[in-house]
Amino acid sequence: MIGLDGEASAEEGQGFVSWQGQGVNPRRMQELRFDQLIFARQLLQAYDCLTLPEQDRLSPLLAAIAEIPDKFSDVVFEGPDTNDGKALSGFFKRFQPKLIESLQAAKRLAEPSKAAPRLHLFWLDKQHCLPALSYLHNRSEWPMGIPRLKMPHEAPSRSTLKLVEALHTLMSDNELRERMRAGQRAVDLGAAPGGWTWQLVNRGLKVIAVDNGPLKGSLVDDPLVQHLREDGLRYRPRKAVDWVVCDMVEKPSRIAQLIAGWLADGAARQAIFNLKLPMKKRYDEVHRCFAIIDDILDRAGLSYILRAKQLYHDREEITCFLAKK
Question: ω before 97 within 30° of 0 (cis)?
Fold first, then answer.
C-alpha cells in the first residue's frame, strides 16, 4: 500500500489486532487510510501499553499522557469487544470523569470544534491500558467502531441495519445527502422479506423490489414499492435507475460481475451490495472480485469509486459501495 514494514500481532478471542511498524515515523502512520481498511472497525495510533497499580491508576496514566505532544478534542474509554471487555463498563463510568477533570485542569483538552486528535484509552483489563490517538476524517466516529443502531419495529428484517450502517460508513454525511435523495428510483435485487427496501422507502425512494419470495409488513401495500416476482440475477429495468442494491446469497464473483454490469450498461449510476465470502482465503476472494469489477468497468471506459467494509452487522461478508465518478 504505502510501503510500511511491520508485523501484526493477535490472539484468538482477544478482540483486537496490534500492528507494530519497524522504524516508522509516527507521522507516516497517518498515511494509512481507515476507509481503505476493509476488515478494520477502527484505526488507532497506539503508544506503549501501561501497567497501572490498582492503588493509583490516575497518576501514572497522567504522566504517560503528558508525554503525548497534543491537545485532545475528546477522551474515549474503550475495551475489547469481548465479554471481559464489556465487563469494564462500570469501571469506565467511575474512572473516566476523574481523568477528564485532571486533563481539563492541565489544559490538555481542545475546543470541541478543533481538529485535534481524539485520545483513546484502550483497556485490556483494569491494570493494562493502551493510550492511542485517532484523527478526524481517518477513523470511525463510533466508539470501538460499533454503531449504536436501534432496530425499527416496523422493519421486516434485521438486514435493514446493515444498509443503515453501510450508508453511514461508506459515505460521508454530505456525500450521502447528495447521492441519495427522496424521489430517486432504486432496484433491490433479492429483496424479500424487504429489510433493504424498507430502508430505501423510508428515505423517500421509489423501489422496484425483485424477488420470487414475498415482502412483509407495510411494504406489501406501500405505493412507493413495486414488487416483481422475478430472478434478481436476470432482471434489468426498462429505464435507468439511480441505485441498485443487492443482498443476495450468491457466489461473490457472480455478484461482482452482476453489479459491475449494471453500471457498465448504464442501468444504474451507483450501487450498494454484499459479497458473501468463503470461509478461507477471504482477502484473496475480495481481490478477485475487485479485479472482475475493474475489468468490466475498464472495458466500458468508466472511471469509478469502489469502497468496501466488513460492517459490524455483517457476518461472513463485506459490503461495497460502487459509483461512477
Answer: no
